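pls design
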């Protein structure tokens, strides 16, 4: 949202003031908060032009609260032209004015024309342009604020008799409201939502089954009462997830509790209902349930500056949809939204909010009690007040001064103090696992000190929370081509489970949408779901890294080598597996699928997986006791298959010759001594150069020398980081922030360039780097995080084939098999 200028901020404050005054007045007026004298809807005087629903609401509130006889408004300049100038010292009301004075070419954003030029175009040419909406704030005045009642008494009396209160217009409750409502219900049934007769005399909207239930006319004292119920339920129906999907305004960080969403949606329903009733000349009343929410709405309107803008959008959309339905337009439901499935999955995850739900009932305005959550290790404290958590809005509770509370906590050694309300925009709603190692107590402010009243024991709730962190979450295919959910819980062995078909669809739909935050939420929630299922029933586990070979068959496999072939003209690179089987001569290699290759780098025991993979690929050889030269393709003729088999056998022989030569070179003592001297000399020179560098940066530079053409992703705690020129590249490709360290210098004595992302987002960012043509080396930690950490390359990922160095590494086995890298 574009930042507001000061004029827009002042207008928003005025709108909030009018709205709060109206809602609070309902308590003294039997629930009536809008149009108590039943005037007609706001219009521009004298042209009679109608205004948008939200503008109509604000104008009517201004008229009600100042006791004006009509809802007719005019601009200052227009009134002056008519000789009906605005009286001195009169205060107008803000009006949101949208104009389309400029049009832009849909295919060429640089091609812009004025509205005058746009109107000169043919209909076909106009289709090539779209309007650019600009928002302005203007000030309107009621005709009672002008000299009209004095300079044109007859004209004024005429408009009052036509647009004034029900008494001024000489109308009372009549059959007009009943006719309008019955017609509205008929149009609703035809164009928007199913309408049913209520058996229990109560009007309601059933969201899940999407129908409106309305009692018969005999159940109401007046047609106006029935009109209120009908409009309220139809407005509720516009908020269905497959219509406007109105679930409440999002809070800070994009999170909101169900209660907050419900109460803010209730406010939109009441306001939109009031606007539609206003157009019918009927008073708007708050329901008994809504009367209980007035204090909450008042607080949120004051402390959440974005709420009034969200209300404007929601009210305009709801009333507009209702009016279109009444005109005969068919309101079709949108296709089922992915967000609905995401929400359902999130709710199914075993997360608990017992502690936060209990805490929200404790802060008390009268007793001045608050809840303080202390994190001594992190030196932070969360303070939950009954109200007034906002630091920008003056809504402080007397006797609960935030400055004094913060001062008292800082004396205790807490560097960071945050304030929250029990709910709403500043609501406090962490899950129970977030309270681990924290102290929760009820306190009261006495002058400049905090007095502890009671401790809250949260240990049992924390135990029940069962929150799990995952190192990796992937969707893989097994040998049969079926999708498997792979999870690697922190400090536990990996788990694989067959997910539901709908979950597989949801998993990939969120990735295709490109919303990283939503995709991460789905991955974590899905992993939590299937982890919980595994804990309840371990038989669900799928063996991705084992075969059905017998122990005897496995024991016959002496050595396994998996490698990539070189790409040749008209022949792409291939993944091949060579196995040395006891009692067998040289066996032609077999092809390894991409799914099997990916699993190789995920296996907890890589050597064991290689053996089982060979047992699967060479099952016919192991079980029949003879070699069979099997072609890799099933659609080749016999001659092609034999030719390919010979080529693979030659490649395998060449591979083994290389292995033998390398082994002989290693055994040469003279060569070893020469290499050692050279290494010692280089190490000595390097040590002198990097004596002042941090251990982490020295490791980075060492690995960078070995892989100069690769972009290094360096695992540091919960993040993957890049440095120097790699940081500049990744920042541009991934759109992540590039920073310069003030503590660490690079090998040239300059501030170290850094860029990084959370470790669990690797599966999102790695494909982007590969698509950009980068060759990526993933550097994982080989020791416990609390030690001085040693790192090595656990995975090399290239946009094309692997480099020769990568093939050599695979042959020599330098990849650390206990590392937890993976290949895509």
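designed seq:
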């Amino acid at each position: 949202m574009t930042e507001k200028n000061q004029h827009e901020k002042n207008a928003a404050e005025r709108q909030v003031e009018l709205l709060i005054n109206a809602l609070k007045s309902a308590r003294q007026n039997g629930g009536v908060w809008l149009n108590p004298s039943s005037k007609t809807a706001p219009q521009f005087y004298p042209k009679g032009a109608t205004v948008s629903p939200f503008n109509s609401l604000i104008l009517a509130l201004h008229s009600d609260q100042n006791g004006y006889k009509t809802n007719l408004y005019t601009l200052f300049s227009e009134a002056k032209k008519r000789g009906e100038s605005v009286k001195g010292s009169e205060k107008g009301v803000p009006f949101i004015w949208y104009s389309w004075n400029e049009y832009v070419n849909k295919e060429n954003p640089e091609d812009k024309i004025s509205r005058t030029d746009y109107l000169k175009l043919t209909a076909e040419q106009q289709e090539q342009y779209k309007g650019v909406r600009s928002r302005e704030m203007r000030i309107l005045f009621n005709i009672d604020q002008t000299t009209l009642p004095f300079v044109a008494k007859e004209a004024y009396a005429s408009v009052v008799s036509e647009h004034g209160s029900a008494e001024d217009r000489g109308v009372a409750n009549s059959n007009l409201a009943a006719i309008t409502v019955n017609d509205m219900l008929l149009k609703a049934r035809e164009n928007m939502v199913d309408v049913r007769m209520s058996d229990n005399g109560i009007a309601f909207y059933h969201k899940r089954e999407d129908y409106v239930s309305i009692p018969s006319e005999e159940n109401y004292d007046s047609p106006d009462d029935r009109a209120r119920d009908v409009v309220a339920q139809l407005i509720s129906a516009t908020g269905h997830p497959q219509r406007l999907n109105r679930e409440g305004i999002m809070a800070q960080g994009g999170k909101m509790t169900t209660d907050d969403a419900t109460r803010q949606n209730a406010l939109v329903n009441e306001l939109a209902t009031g606007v539609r009733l206003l157009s019918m000349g009927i008073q708007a009343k708050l329901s008994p349930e809504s009367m209980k929410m007035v204090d909450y709405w008042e607080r949120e309107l004051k402390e959440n500056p974005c709420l009034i803008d969200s209300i404007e959008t929601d009210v305009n959309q709801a009333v507009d949809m209702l009016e279109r339905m009444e005109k005969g337009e068919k309101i079709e439901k949108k296709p089922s939204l992915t967000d609905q499935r995401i929400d359902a999955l999130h709710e199914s995850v075993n997360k608990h909010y017992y502690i936060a739900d209990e805490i929200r009932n404790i802060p008390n305005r009268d007793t001045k009690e608050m809840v303080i959550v202390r994190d001594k290790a992190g030196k932070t404290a969360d303070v939950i007040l009954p109200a007034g958590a906002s630091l920008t809005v003056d809504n402080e509770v007397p006797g609960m001064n935030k400055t004094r509370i913060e001062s008292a906590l800082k004396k205790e050694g807490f560097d960071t103090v945050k304030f929250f309300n029990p709910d709403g925009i500043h609501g406090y709603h962490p899950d129970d696992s977030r309270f681990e190692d924290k102290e929760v107590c009820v306190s009261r402010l006495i002058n400049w000190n905090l007095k502890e009243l009671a401790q809250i024991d949260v240990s049992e709730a924390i135990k029940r929370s069962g929150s799990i962190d995952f190192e990796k979450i992937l969707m893989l295919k097994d040998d049969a081509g079926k999708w498997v959910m792979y999870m690697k819980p922190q400090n536990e062995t990996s788990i694989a489970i067959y997910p539901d078909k709908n979950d597989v669809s949801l998993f990939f739909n969120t990735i295709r949408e490109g919303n990283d935050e939503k995709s991460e939420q789905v991955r974590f929630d899905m992993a939590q779901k299937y982890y919980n299922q595994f804990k309840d029933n371990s038989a669900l586990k799928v063996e991705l890294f084992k075969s059905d070979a017998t122990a005897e068959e496995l024991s016959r496999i002496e050595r396994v080598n998996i490698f990539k072939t070189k790409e040749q003209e008209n022949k792409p690179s291939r993944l091949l597996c060579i196995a040395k089987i006891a009692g067998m001569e040289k066996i032609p290699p077999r092809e390894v699928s991409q799914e099997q290759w990916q699993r190789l780098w995920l296996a907890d025991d890589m050597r064991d997986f290689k053996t089982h993979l060979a047992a699967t690929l060479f099952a016919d050889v192991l079980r029949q006791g003879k070699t069979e030269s099997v072609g890799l393709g099933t659609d080749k003729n016999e001659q092609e298959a034999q030719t390919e088999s010979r080529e693979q056998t030659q490649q395998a022989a060449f591979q083994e010759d290389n292995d033998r030569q390398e082994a002989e070179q290693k055994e040469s003592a003279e060569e070893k001594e020469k290499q050692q001297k050279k290494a010692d000399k280089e190490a000595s020179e390097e040590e002198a150069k990097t004596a002042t560098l941090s251990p982490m940066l020295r490791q980075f530079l060492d690995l960078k020398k070995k892989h100069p053409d690769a972009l290094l992703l360096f695992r540091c705690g919960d993040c993957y980081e890049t440095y120097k020129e790699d940081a500049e590249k990744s920042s541009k490709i991934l759109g992540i922030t590039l920073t310069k360290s003030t503590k660490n210098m690079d090998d040239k004595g300059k501030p170290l360039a850094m860029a990084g992302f959370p470790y669990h987002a690797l599966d999102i960012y790695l494909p982007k780097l590969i698509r950009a043509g980068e060759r990526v080396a993933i550097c994982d930690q080989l020791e416990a995080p609390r030690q001085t950490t040693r790192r090595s390359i656990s995975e090399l990922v290239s946009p094309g084939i692997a480099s020769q160095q990568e093939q050599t590494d695979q042959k020599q086995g330098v990849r650390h098999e206990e590392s937890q890298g993976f290949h895509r």
